[in-house]
Amino acid sequence: MSTTDALFQPITLGKLELSNRIVMAPMTRTYSPGNVPNDLNVAYYERRAANGVGLIITEGTCVGHKGANGYARVPFIYGEEALAGWKKVVDAVHAKGGKIAPQLWHVGAVRKEGTEPDPSVPGYSPSGLFKPGRETGVAMTKDDINDVIEAFAQAAEDSQRIGFDAVEIHGAHGYLIDQFFWEGTNQRDDEYGGDQVARTRFACEIVQAIRDRVGPDFPIIFRFSQWKQQDYSARMCNTPEELDAFLKPLVNAGVDIFHCSTRRFWEKEFEGSDMNLAGWTRKLTGKPAITVGSVGLNAGFIDEDKRDMIDASGVAHGNINELAERLGNDEFELVAVGRALLQDPEWVIKVREGRFDELTDYSKKSLMELV
């Protein structure tokens, strides 16, 4: 096999049959005025499917709860008009031979006062904290928790009904579900707070509710992270034993695939092993894992100790080679590509054909060109 062939091997994960190992990472773009997917969204996802992405995970799409949205012009996944918009996206991706999953999202206390569609609605969090010691929004009642669980379950049911191939739950980066995981923001003294395992209860009930709605075979992906947007250095789990304790309840609840968000895929997660977060997750759970983090980015995004990854064109060719080697060694099953695929919809084809000199420097692209 050539250096990158491991990236282009087909894989079957339960009912999810993928033509290769490359996943389009979820990336918020705010291209949906009125919170409804439109023709620009359709063209954007259709183009990546046509150019060989194995699985597309959409930008975060807000579930049907009054405090779910934190940003203008992001798409929703509730209401007749928004679901009809997503149906067009799904049909276009399938017509090009692609597979697609929505990322189900609730921002929690990230929501700022005045955010659409109802500017009077506050942010919600486990105990009213956006970060340790900083009160923001409203502490969730049991009724609020039940409402959010129902919103995720309904979003998953609707996603399955309109033809999505899987769903991803956004449990990372300091948004609502992650705020329950994080000791600094979850100060509850009921069954949803307490030790590390107790703090997974909210996420597990969301997973269980979704499983009840979509049946035993519909794939549920769960995205989690150590880092938070409130604190890039934050870590929930400092040892493999702590990570194991965190992941087991989610596996038991019904997660099929873990999407392990890191900022640099080559960074080892724990001392004594070069495996990254996805590698450890796969090892501990036996579940398929998606790795992610600065895949294929250029010199401006690569640490000094990894400059040997950069070829003469300034593109991280060696970065891709290391990634493919880890994949070939069964450290993880899938690879999520974010900004590199955002700026170049033909990225998959160019890598597959070894056309590395044609990969575009991300830093030179205008956001207005990324369609």
UniProtKB/TrEMBL annotation:
GO terms under cellular component: cytosol
Domain of life: Bacteria
Organism field: Thalassolituus maritimus
Protein name stated in the entry: 2,4-dienoyl-CoA reductase
InterPro entries for the chain: Aldolase_TIM (IPR013785), OxRdtase_FMN_N (IPR001155), Oye-like (IPR045247)
GO molecular function: FMN binding; oxidoreductase activity
Start and end residues of each NADH:flavin oxidoreductase/NADH oxidase N-terminal domain: 7-296
